[in-house]
Amino acid sequence: MSAKKGIELLKSVFEEVAKSKGFSNCLRNFRVTGGGDGSCVAEFTVAEEHLNPAGGLHGGLIATIIDNVSTYALMTKERPTEATGATVDLHVSYMKAARLGDEVIVDAKAIRAGKLLAYLECELRHKKDGSLIAKGTQTKYVGV
């Protein structure tokens, strides 16, 4: 899929997420900045609703971001099936806190997508200095 078509697809996905009444609505304030050919790059600003009780970006939200945004990257990859699949493994490493008002870049890639499994990775970084907030990998069953 071309980068232009990929970005158009990703923007439409995030528009649908913003309208959603479901759990993915927590990503409603994300802005797509790049993507296509198995990648998705987005940005958001840490808001009060994203914080844990200690004032940092909530770890559960970070896991959700990695799960969803890496899936969106997969949606832009040419592969045998168009199914987004089901997560069978999600691993997250937390490196550094993000605080209220911090701008965060989310960069996700589909590393390999076969007939049954897809392997994805994602990083969250501070926009101001590129420091790593968290990184994660995901395996999805796509043989649906």
UniProtKB/TrEMBL annotation:
- What keywords were assigned to this record? Hydrolase
Record keyword Protease present? no
List GO molecular-function terms, semicolon-separated.
Answer: fatty acyl-CoA hydrolase activity
Looking up CDD domains in the UniProt record yields: PaaI_thioesterase
UniProt xrefs under Pfam families: 4HBT
Alphabetical list of Gene3D superfamilies matching this protein: Hotdog Thioesterase (3.10.129.10)
Read off the SUPFAM superfamilies from this record.
Answer: Thioesterase/thiol ester dehydrase-isomerase
Residue ranges occupied by any Thioesterase domain in the UniProt entry: 55-131
Q: Which NCBIfam families match?
A: unchar_dom_1
**What family is this protein classified in?**
Belongs to the thioesterase PaaI family.
Q: What is this protein called?
A: Thioesterase domain-containing protein
